[in-house]
Amino acid sequence: MLNSKVQTMKTKHHINFLFFCCISLLVNIHSAVCSQDVASQFLKRSHITDSLLLPYRLYIPDNYDGQILFPTVLALHGAGKRGNDNESHLNKKILPWAEDEIQMKYPSIIIAPQCPEEEYWTRQNVCEAVFSLLDSLLTELSIDTNRIYISGGSMGAYATWFLPTYRDNFFAAGLPVSGGGYEYYIGAINDFPLWVIHGNADDKVPVERSRNMITYLETAGRDPFYTKCNFNNGDCSGMSDFLIGSLIDVGADLFYAEYDGLGHGIGDIHFSDTNAINWLFKQSRANEAYVYDPVVVEQLYKEDSIRNNTINTEYITGNFNEIKSYPNPFSGSISITFEAETSSNAFLEIFDMFGRKIKSMENNSLQYGQNTFIWDATDDSQDKVKVGIYFYVLTVSEKLYQGRLVFVQ
C-alpha cells in the first residue's frame, strides 16, 4: 500500500514537472516570437561616411504621417554586440523602446546603430558617423529636435556620457546604464539632464564609474537625487514613487539609481521603471533650466514623510489619472479638471504641508462630462498663499481624489 502511494506521488510530481516545463517552454517561445515580431518592425539600413559603414535599424511609430514632430531615442548597445550583421544588437536592451508599453504612451522614433568590430562609440570616426547618421535622418524624418534622447548600456552608456560633449545642445537628456565617463566631461555636460543607473555588484564596469560622475557633477554644483541606494551614506531604503514623481514634476534633472546587489546585466532594468521612462520623455531642450529650490525640495520630503506615516489614503476611491491639474507647477492660477457622470455637487479642499485646510470651493451645478475648479493660490480670506507644496482632496459624487499642487513664483 505504501509503495502504491509513493508511486502515485512520484507520478503526480512527474506530471507537475512536465506541466511546468511545458508552460516554461511556451512562455519562452511566446517571448521569442514577440521579440522577433518587434524586431521585424525595425527597418534595416546602413549609413556610409568617408571612413565608416554604419549599419543601423530604424523604428518608425505606427501613427507617423510626416506632419507631427516625434521624440527620438538613439539607443546604443554594448561592446558584445559589435559587428556588421545589423541583427544581433537588437536584443532586450534595445527592443523594448519599440514595444507597446512605451509606444502607446510615448510614440517615438528609435535609431539603433551597430558599432563595427574593434571600434568604440567614443572614437572620433564612430562619433562622426553617428552624428552624420542623425543629421541625415533629421532631413528625412519629422523629428522633434528639442526631444532627441540618448541611452545605452555598458559601452553604450559610456557613449551616453560622451556624445553630449561632442556636440553641445543636441540631445535633450541621457539615460546611461552600467557605464561611466571622465571628469573632463563635466564642463560640457554640467547642465545636461541625466538619469544614471548602475548595480553595485557590477563585476565588469565597477559602480565607481557612475558614482564618480555623480560626485563630479555634484562638486560642480548639480543636485543629484538618489532613487535607490545613496552611496554617500549607505542608505538603500530608496525613494517612494510619490517623491520621485514630485521631483520630476518640479523639474529635477539629475537622478541616480544604484541597485543594491545587482550586477552588469541590468541593461534593461529601466524599462520596468516607469519613473525613469516618464522622466526621459518629459525632458526637452525647450524646457526652462532646472533651478534647485531647497525650500520646495524640503517640502516635498516633508509631504512624503507625512504621506508615509500619518495620512490614511484608504478612503481615496477615485482614480488619480481621472484628474488633470494644469499647469503644475503654476505661478498664477491652476485648473483642476475632472469628469462628472451625473449632475451632482463637487467639493474641493486645499491643504498646506501641515494638513491645515486653507481653501474650500464648491460647485453645486456640475455638468455631465468635464468640469473645472480654478484655484488662484489664495486662501479663504483671499490672501495669497506662500510659495510651496499643497495638496487637495476633491469629492465628486461618492468618489474622492487626492493630488498635489506646486505653487512657484
Explain how this protein is built:
This protein is α/β, with parallel strands linked by helices and 409 residues long. It has two domains: 36-292, 3-Layer(aba) Sandwich (Rossmann fold); 320-407, Immunoglobulin-like. Helix content is 30%, strand content 25%. It has helices spanning 2-39, 100-103, 124-140, 155-166, 186-189, 208-219, 241-249, 274-282, 294-309, and strands at 42-48, 53-59, 70-76, 109-113, 143-153, 173-177, 194-199, 225-226, 254-259, 324-326, 334-340, 346-351, 357-363, 369-375, 388-396, 399-407. The strands form three sheets. Strands 1-2-4-3-5-6-7-9-8 form a nine-stranded mixed sheet, with helices on both faces. A four-stranded antiparallel sheet has the order 13-12-15-16. β1 (42-48) and β2 form a beta hairpin. α7 runs antiparallel to α9 (294-309).
Which CATH class of the largest domain is shown?
Answer: Alpha Beta
Would you report the number of β strands? 16
Mean pLDDT: 86
**Spatial shape:** globular
Task: Please state the structural category.
Answer: alpha/beta
Summarize the main sheet: 9 strands, mixed
Q: What is the first-to-last residue Cα distance?
A: 83 Å
CATH architecture of the largest domain: 3-Layer(aba) Sandwich
Uncertain segments: 1-6, 8-13, 17-33, 310-320
Query: How many discrete structural domains?
Result: 2
Placed side by side, the strands forming the largest sheet appear as 1-2-4-3-5-6-7-9-8
Q: Please work out how many helical segments DSSP would assign.
A: 9
Order of helices and strands: HEEEHEHEHEHEHEHEHHEEEEEEE
Helix content: 25-40%
